[in-house]
Amino acid sequence: MSNKIYPIGIQNFEKIRRDGYFYIDKTALIYQLVTTGSYYFLSRPRRFGKSLLLSTLEAYFQGKKELFEGLAMEKLEKDWIKYPILHIDLNAQKYDTPESLDSILNNVLTEWETKYGAEPSETSLSMRFEGIIGRVCQQEGLPVVILVDEYDKPILQAIGNDELQKNFRETLNAFYGALKSKDGCIKFGMLTGVTKFGKVSVFSDLNNLDDISMRNQFVDICGVSEQELHDNLDNELHELAAVQGLTYEEACDKLKEYYDGYHFTHNSIGVYNPFSVLHVFKRNEFGSYWFETGTPTYLVELLKKHHYDLHRMAHEETSAEVLNSIDSVSDNPIPVIYQSGYLTIKGYDSEFETYRLGFPNREVEAGFIKFLLPFYANTNAVESSFEIRKFVREVESGDCDAFFRRLQSFFADTPYELVRDLELHYQNVLFIVFKLIGFYVKAEYHTSAGRIDLLLQTDKFIYVMEFKLDGTAEEALKQINEKHYAQPFENDDRKLFKIGVNFSAEMRNIEKWIMEK
Prior knowledge:
single chain, alpha/beta, 5-stranded mixed beta sheet, 15 strands, globular
């Protein structure tokens, strides 16, 4: 049995090293980072190791050589100079008023001013920050290292509140501007966050930052690569396989299907979610560990606000400019969803310089789609899992009428204000339902103007369905026959159902379905 102690929830490098926690050595990449540049920005999803990265940088710049014993850095660094460090962590706070951000920044600055002094002429937060950087450099006789963790937390919390978001952007824009104005006093600076807001907002005064978020060279500076997994956890993989009753290859494949698949640029290696991987090995059990630690409600609100067609999400195409920045006035929810870790890069068209996006892995896809259901259908978060289970049982047992009555209940109480977007609404609900069923049975989903066709396959049954909006169920069934949708299954031993369904805008629900066996 493995004797590794997994650092779940521990983001302090010194604690990990002193207390013997498991650590995957990222210090060669960190050395490359600090020796080839001065100012960096890194965007990664939550719980991906950004705080640990900054904590490792802090230990390095504090000259704590003993913490790097046995790591790559021990042989790479020769001087181990101790630099003064200003570390700002905006993570664990609630930002719901303009004063909340001002208060946090004021507390940080006051703590530094107690040690390094203050000037009466420094009346704004940004002026005080500039003054502190200058005095620290002067008093310590060395340039300063500045580390900012979750720089964007206030702005993310204000999504949906344009006025508050504007206030936070202006405050942070001026505050972070000190990094540029005091360039001569700074040895190294790094900001991390989940998102990168557009050039016209937080970073407009900070064009000296090198954004490494999509840099292949640093793609696995956070997270776990395939190589690292097998180099560091191979014995544990064998143990996991034994406990789960799988072969070693099956355990590797399942781990990859559930937690791998993050690609932060094109033609790059895949990266595993470190939070979920550590939980799997600690418990020897697969689960939705990362997804269950956060409820991305603001993402769903963005999707609904911008009337997004959910079917597009699994194969969205976009450009590097869109992926790299979030413009607060944009009506495109995709950059936030990508940078938050719910979508990742699946392909790249070099001719048109466009990226194809999709869900990174099974954990994220199943978790996100399941999370969406109560926001779109007439069910709650507690009941939705049970409802999907009942759908699957009805499909597996050939009980079509029960299936469609349950589907009708999902459309019950569709708000009247959705009528103008009714086609999109019914498409989104059907997409969510059939996507979730598709985790248990084989499902194919196709949509075009005014119609949807669906194919479900189980061990015993095949369902060919045609959905119409404001047509008739008879027309839908007729189309199945005239277009020969069921022809590929004519010689199949399984029982075939051809089902025509009509969705009525007036009823805001499924009006009728008819079956042909």
